[in-house]
Amino acid sequence: MAEEGPVLSVHPSSSLVDEKIEVEVKRLPADYRITLHALIHSEDGDDWEAFGRYTSDSSGTVKVSRDKCLGGTFEGVEAMGLLWSMRPVPESKPGRRFQKKNVQTPIKVVFSVYEEHLAKGFKHRTPLTSVTAERWYLAPEVQRVEVTVGEIKGTLFIPPGSGPFPAVLDLWGGQGGRVEYRSALLASHGYVSLALEYVGLQNAAGKLQHVDNTYFETAFTFLQKHPNVRPDRVAVMGMSFGVPVTLGLAAYSEFVEPRCVVCVSGSHIMPVKGSLADVYAALQANIDKIRYDEKMRIIWRDLLLPVPDDPSKKVKMGEIKCPVLLIAGEDDQNCPAPESAADMKKMMEEAGNSHLLTVLLYPGTGHLIESPYSPHVRFSDFKLLEAKTKVVVLWGGETVPHSRAQEESWQKTLVFLEEHLYDNSREVAGC
């Protein structure tokens, strides 16, 4: 080892979570074996790690974007492998899922260099050197505003600048609560975004209430009338349980006319013009279709299969008059997203509006299609709101193809939103 020791750099040292970084080690001996390790301590108290084994070149340098990883949690030339291949450390409790709750603080990633090609025991060894990098969902000067307007609850994110900006109504999935990190990232790219809380809301008596379509229409109108928003450039983005809501609003609402919609890992199967209560009732009626894998992890995708022929049981896709981006994983074990996408395409072809549809279908990809370079989670704990019990849900996907899908689908989502929400001459905010 050179007397001055190796120098580890991460550039940029502070970046958005969808931005690529360069990890490089210099001042190593030539042909020297090292292991690069990345560690995140999550807000839930869990440790997530990734590592790759490398051999330095003749100048004593390892450059992750250029050099081949010889094994670890990933292999080959993978510039972002130290992030997307992260997984809970071996001693973790099973069922962990990585989610950022406080978007006003960064994800801190500790990168370390260890001697030799290692496979375990990192916490018991002293690294040659370490540096910490920050990964943000929230760009500098993006405003975060908690919203309570009548019954509407959510968080509004407003990009820096005078505006007005295009906007996105962001509907997360069935886990409930308020999930902000996608909205924060959208605002970091120039969109006012409202992360709407709609699953798991409680009434004055403390009991769960299922909101009706008026709730979503009110939220859309609030966003549309906000002084920082261009009222004719508002999109709706749904994930999982938010997809039938998104499609139903686009197809039937007299008050909601989105400029475009983005649907991730969801279905159009729901009672026509139905409310969330109707969707819950339809799922409950098919409860006997629940399956479990060999490790007793719950599989929910069959609750909505087979795709019904009865048009009264699914959104009339022919009624949609705005561009639609559908994103689905072929290994989604939680929702029949690929089957639904195929049926939606067929319905729109028959109705003559298929020119509005773009489908991104990814093999080896599961249900939880997150922002780029996020850890792939094949299964995790899930709290049942009604029963107040916890189950382990199988989401599906294999790490490499799922991670590729996360990166590509997000970039195509940004291109889709830019195409339909911004003028061609606009300056790209946050990019």
Automatic annotation (TrEMBL):
GO terms for molecular function: fatty acyl-CoA hydrolase activity. GO terms for biological process: acyl-CoA metabolic process; fatty acid metabolic process. InterPro entries: AB_hydrolase_fold, Acyl-CoA_thioEstase_long-chain, BAAT_C, Thio_Ohase/aa_AcTrfase, Thio_Ohase/BAAT_N. Gene3D superfamilies: Acyl-CoA thioester hydrolase/BAAT N-terminal domain, alpha/beta hydrolase. Pfam families: BAAT_C, Bile_Hydr_Trans. Belongs to the C/M/P thioester hydrolase family. This is Uncharacterized protein. It comes from Cirrhinus molitorella.
